[in-house]
Design goal:
By secondary structure, this protein is α+β, with helices and mostly antiparallel strands. The protein has helices at 20-38, 47-63, 106-115, 132-140, 175-186, 192-199, 233-245, 263-271, and strands spanning 10-14, 68-73, 76-86, 89-97, 123-128, 144-153, 167-168, 203-208, 215-221, 224-230, 253-258, 276-285, 294-295. The protein folds into two domains: 10-121, 3-Layer(aba) Sandwich (Aminopeptidase), CATH 3.40.630; 151-280 and 290-295, Aminopeptidase (3-Layer(aba) Sandwich), CATH 3.40.630. A hairpin with a 2-residue loop joins β3 (76-86) and β4 (89-97). The relative contact order is 0.15. The structure holds coenzyme A.
């Protein structure tokens, strides 16, 4: 860990459009550094990933300007935080401090600024990295910490069950159905975030079974899976398998933030031969436990 730094010269201010390239790069570098320390990999930083990551920052700074902050020291970018608010639900999408400036209180200042939009939220969530400073701050800010697993690798296609009863949805026709399933899961629909995921070319898979407990929806593309919500673990299991079956050949799938509440997802990961690792915590406020037949999107909650 770097030495503790004084925070006297830190300026925390709202993020502007001109900040996006430099602060997105900062966030990538800080998370890649955390990955080296705590045993996870972000994968290759290629132009498509950069475009996606910058578009995500632009999207959230447009929908939630009151939750988007950067930190500077003497004009140098040193940190970024992005939080979103959807109705009664709040989510921290990004919090990073540049290596060389960590452990000096900047993360705490950024988090405190971002948390302001959570003050009257009924429910709040954060997908925490394994960084002990992140876990400490989220726990001290009143979040319950639920240890989480990550499943990542190429799924064993021979393990995919037949007759899943899941179809690739039509984004227009099935939008309201999917939002109703998501809203029942986490308490609020995704709204502009679902539209953004669609604009990024992601697919929507749904199970619209005959009974209310037999409904589920998942957004997935190129191995990226989530958000996922369902009315039962059985329906959740079916759409998760459908998302794994749609992963292109030679491509890793990733199921992120599987807590003890999501044994059904751990079982799918094991059956699909995806290696599991311990990967941080799902942090919740206002929930009795993490919503069980759901998988949280680490970008949108
Ligand atoms: C996690 C991160 C944002 C924290 O920001 P930071 O500026 O480094 O941390 P702070 O100095 O604000 O310290 C946060 C807390 O951790 C404590 N802390 C500092 N060093 C620590 C250490 N080595 N181990 C445990 N706790 C430590 C601090 O005392 C502080 O707690 P307190 O406010 O109750 O005293 C930053 O370290 C980072 O970017 N890490 C890599 C990327 C990452 O994992 N981001 C989180 C994604 S969810």
């Amino acid at each position: 860990m770097p030495a503790t730094l004084s925070t006297d010269s830190t300026l925390v201010r709202p993020l502007t459009a001109a900040d996006v390239p430099a602060f997105e790069q900062l966030a990538w570098d800080a998370l890649a550094g955390a990955g080296r320390r705590y045993g996870f990999s972000l994968g290759e930083r290629n132009p498509a990933r950069v475009a996606w990551a910058q578009a995500r920052v632009r999207h959230l700074s447009a929908t939630d300007p009151a939750g988007a902050f950067v930190a500077e020291q003497d004009g140098e970018p040193v940190g970024i935080a992005l939080a979103l608010r959807r109705g009664s639900f709040w989510f921290l999408s990004l919090l990073t401090v540049a290596e060389g400036h960590q452990s000096g209180g900047i993360g705490r200042q950024l988090l405190d600024a971002a948390l302001r939009t959570s003050e009257d939220a009924e429910r709040a969530m954060i997908c925490s990295s394994p960084d002990p400073r992140a876990l400490r701050r989220y726990g001290r800010a009143g979040f319950a910490l639920h240890a989480a697993l990550d499943a990542k690798g190429q799924p064993d296609r021979t393990a995919v069950p037949t007759d899943l009863g899941v179809r690739e949805a039509d984004w227009d026709a099935d939008h309201d159905f999917a939002e109703s399933v998501f809203a029942a899961g986490r308490g609020e629909p995704y709204g502009p975030d679902l539209a953004w995921l669609r604009s990024q070319g992601m697919k929507l898979f749904v199970r619209d079974g005959a009974t209310p407990s037999d409904r589920a929806a998942v957004v997935a593309s190129d191995g990226q899976i989530g958000p996922l919500a369902a009315a039962s673990p059985e329906a959740a299991t079916r759409v998760l398998w459908a998302a794994l079956a749609a992963v292109p050949p030679e491509t890793d799938a990733r199921i992120a933030y599987i807590t003890g509440q999501q044994q059904w997802a751990a079982e799918v990961a094991l059956a699909a031969r995806l290696p599991l690792s311990v990967a941080g915590a799902l942090c919740t406020r206002g929930y009795v436990a993490p919503p069980a037949p759901c998988l949280t999107s680490e970008v949108f909650g």
